Amino acid sequence: MSTVSALSRARASLARRSWGEAYAELARADAAAPLDIDGLEMLALASYLTGRDEEATRAWTRAHHHAMELHEPRRAARQAIRIASGLMFRGETAPARGWFARAGRVLQGHEDCAEQAWLHTWDAFTRMWSGDPKGAQPVFTAAAADSGRFGDPDLLTMSRLGEGMCVLLQGAVPRGLVLLDEVMVAVTSGEVSPIYAGMAYCTVVAACIEVFDLQRARQWTTALARWCDAQPDLVPYRGNCLVHRCELLQLEGAWADAVAAAHRACELLSGPIRWDSLGSAYYQLAELHRLRGEYAAAEETYRRAGAAGRPPEPGLALLRLAQGRTGAAAAVLHRALAETEEPPARCRLLAAYVEVTIAVGDLAAARAGAEELDRTAEVLDVAYLRAVADSAAGAVLIAEGDARSALRRLRVASATWHRFDAPYEAARAQVLIGLACRALGDPETSAMELDGARNVFAQLGAEPDVERLDGLVGRPVAPTPGVLTARELQVLTLVASGRTNRGIGRELGLSDKTVARHVHNLLTKLDVPSRAAATAYAYEHDLIEHPATQN
């Protein structure tokens, strides 16, 4: 009776999506007396959804063997498919294929069943991810038709998801996104089980970001965050959600929140089971380090991204550009573009390529990159990519001396960035507008645009952009009395610890000259005569933590 009661309580917990409670109840019951096949299936589900992947695999494996002993091949195959699905989703393709092969062997003689349709569906995903979306699409379409006959909403969701992705990958972006929206209607209405709902959420959000449809990505990321938050014990999809959320927070200018999300995503995705999206989490964190001028941290984190399987371009090339290593930056992007064929992936490189080739004076290459961005933006027809293309074209036109034409493109880009609530990108466009106005003999508007951009950079903590802009206008912008930037607070903290300018530079990845300028600015803002006086002022006014109170 105790086992029956435990299973009943576990079912109730699963119905409430209290995955942790269900796992604890089932694990205790299993330790007292081995669970039957129904109990093992519940234990596997609860284990998987609480991030205990190895325990989930063991429970599903036991359920698989029980089903074989009971001469229930379809049920045994379903357990194998569930194991393989989880492995495939987190990028462990070799063991996944092994379990799919076992399911196929078990199903010999059972050709017309939902389990066979599942095998066809996952085989189609493999074909799609291997570069054959055209060949995979009819398989997904057939599986979707079969799902209604078999009464399997999960199969319908995953086959429609695959069909939408195939359409998207073949370049029919608007139609593909509509199909993915249809998938998400079923997911958000609760028609899909949690394992496949999570897979659909993560896949759709990633697809929207891949084709630069940031408005859709924001909406579905918000829905994914709500779905995760409604299940506090849920682990598998939370890290992926945070990666997407980090990218959107960065775009929106909420950089402190983005850093926190990136750190948490790295923690969730790095252990005890490593997910293939870990590299993307490291990459997003590295991007934030780079934008804030934390070059040593950016260097290390880009390398972690690469080690985890996410190429560090274009971010690493932009880091090299910021470090003054323009030749290295150009070499990285030339090589990366030569290896990249898919138009969306090339676009992620091309914006940086235009910036770097302008910096090295190769205007022909910059023009070619901007024109390719234009062509792809025309085909994909999404506002975000159009703004990227307009910004790149404006930068090239300024470099070529055609400020009037540049201004027209840049005004359009600026309006789009403001509509997207993307302050950093808007400020970068504003800098170019200021330069175009200066070239057209309008110094007053130029100064207004450049000062406005500088204020945005300072508020965001984009210290490298502040420094570049100050150098660009040929004069230091007067510091605001008493208000330190995030970078100046970092420098002040290190000054108070007794570091020399050279030591501070090594810590933050800055040149001695840049550190000296930060020290000068913070002394001016605090109206103090020396480093010792700045240290005393910082402690007295709680600008930094006193050593006695540090952990």
TrEMBL record:
InterPro entries from the UniProt entry: Sig_transdc_resp-reg_C-effctor, TPR-like_helical_dom_sf, Tscrpt_reg_LuxR_C, WH-like_DNA-bd_sf
GO molecular function, one term: DNA binding
Record domain HTH luxR-type: where: 477-542
One GO biological process term: regulation of DNA-templated transcription
Entries under PROSITE patterns matching the protein: HTH_LUXR_1, HTH_LUXR_2
Keywords, ordered alphabetically: DNA-binding, Transcription, Transcription regulation
Pfam family membership, one: GerE
Record-given protein name: HTH luxR-type domain-containing protein
Organism the protein comes from: Pseudonocardia halophobica
